[in-house]
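Archive record:
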Amino acid sequence: MDSLPVIAVSPLVRGGARDALVGVAREIEHACRDSGFFYVRGHGVPAELLERLDRLSRAFFDLPEADKMQIAMARGGRAWRGYFPVGAELTSGRPDLKEGLYFGTELDETDPRVRARVPLHGPNLFPRQVPELRTTVLEYLDALTGVAQAVLRGVALSLDLDADYFASSYTADPTILFRIFHYPPQPPADDDSWGVGEHTDYGLLTLLAQDDNGGLQVGTPRCWLDAPPVPGTFVCNIGDMLDRLTGGWYRSTPHRVRNVSGRERLSYPFFFDPDFTAEVPPLPGRARVDAAGQSRWDGVDLQAFTGMYGDYLLGKVAKVFPQLRDDVL
């Protein structure tokens, strides 16, 4: 059966012999060339932290709507942080069947980027009804940042670059975005609606924790493939900027979610992206790869983009929340 590979990244996380690092890098290369998705195990994130995050997230989504709206995204201003209700986020112009919380790097009002009113930078909004969520989310962001940097070491080696190529450049000051999504049960007969419609991620890497209910599907070159939860792992996938950096050698892969488990589904995508102000040209020696006439699912030519990563990100996010774009940006 076709399935996504499970890659042990512990040599990248803890440090290992050169042969071990290169071995992991070759596994990452194969996964990135094949589907752009793989499972990560040996990441070192404590199970207790994930269990605590899940428990507190469920406590938040169990709150009355009025309580959740106390930290609505409109209150986050240009930082675009906080809560949105079911149907408020669009994918490819259609409302998603999910509600969620948006977080990012915690920055106070004295940070130069906040003072300069740079979009997507600022303080997070946390619910007063679930006070432990603040410390847990910030702890989780720190832990996942370490895992993402480790995986990118493997990606760099897979591209015959120095292991710290990304950490010393594009992710020396990364753009970190974190979401907690809650998907209500979806009727099995509803074939026209999605928890999240078909899309690719915008940046370098995504690390996804998900509960036991499944629903994630990956658009591989061969078929739509289920990516069920595997205990002790994150699902990792590459984003548009890694596609662009490699000239299409690694392709960002469409994926989507439909929750037909009959139960509530929670997922925790952590997006690890380039510095907001970085330009992201193709890597040296990485000219455009001939994809045998195959265009992207959305017709976008990533190699045609010019400007900072922040420009690309804002263009994408503004389509996801058009009302917020009109009110805030």
Summary: Residues 119 and 314 are 8 Å apart (CA to CA). The chain has nine helices and 14 strands. The first strand starts at residue 6 and ends at 8. The two ends are 47 Å apart (CA to CA).
